[in-house]
């Protein structure tokens, strides 16, 4: 069976002098290899995926073990997994699903090892006002309380 550590070592050697980083690597029992990469700045294009795919193919021997390989970018449809992904998306809107099932759309304002800071607007009843008023709230959320967080895609 192909080891995740071996794949990680190959990918890290290929991206060592770039702003690319590994988001996830998995190898199933039947040698289906999945690699997800991201970038701090310019994103990941198909050429980046192809280069990493070729590097893995060159290091593994299909005669010893047959495998299936898929190298992908961490697209907008995927949840954020790493602190580095949260940090690169500061000042962007994110959809958050909490472990208790609550959902919230907010602007990501900061990210630390165990928590994120968000800003969002909420309508609340203010004393001496007849209608609900929109107020801006800032909160710190523990990452342990976040089930998933995805970047909001806006076409404005």
Structural notes for this entry:
- This protein has 156 residues and is an alpha+beta fold.
- The protein folds into two domains: 4-73, GMP Synthetase, Chain A, domain 3 (2-Layer Sandwich), CATH 3.30.300.20; 83-151, SH3 type barrels (Roll).
- The protein has three helices and eight strands; from the N terminus they run αββαβαβββββ.
- The chain has helices at residues 4-15, 46-59, 83-88; strands spanning 20-27, 32-39, 68-73, 93-98, 103-111, 115-125, 132-142, 146-151.
- The strands form two sheets. The protein has a five-stranded antiparallel β-sheet with strand order 7-6-5-4-8. Strands 1-2-3 form a three-stranded mixed β-sheet, with helices on one face.
- Helix 1 (4-15) crosses helix 2.
- The longest helix is centred in the middle third of the chain and has 14 residues, at 46-59.
- It is elongated, with a radius of gyration of 20 Å.
- The termini are far apart.
């Amino acid at each position: 069976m192909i080891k995740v550590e071996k794949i990680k070592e190959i990918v890290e050697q290929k991206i060592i002098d770039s702003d690319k980083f590994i988001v996830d690597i998995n190898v199933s029992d039947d040698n289906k290899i999945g690699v997800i990469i991201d970038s701090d700045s310019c994103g990941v294009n198909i050429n980046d995926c192809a280069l990493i795919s070729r590097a893995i193919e060159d290091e593994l021997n299909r005669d010893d073990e047959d495998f299936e390989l898929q190298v992908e970018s961490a697209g907008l449809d995927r949840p954020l997994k790493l602190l580095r992904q949260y940090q690169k998306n500061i000042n962007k809107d994110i959809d958050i699903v909490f472990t208790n099932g609550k959902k919230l759309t907010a602007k990501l304002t900061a990210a630390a090892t165990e928590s994120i800071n968000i800003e969002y607007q909420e309508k609340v009843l203010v004393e001496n006002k007849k209608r609900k008023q929109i107020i801006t709230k800032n909160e710190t959320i523990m990452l342990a309380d976040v089930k998933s967080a995805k970047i909001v895609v806006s076409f404005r």
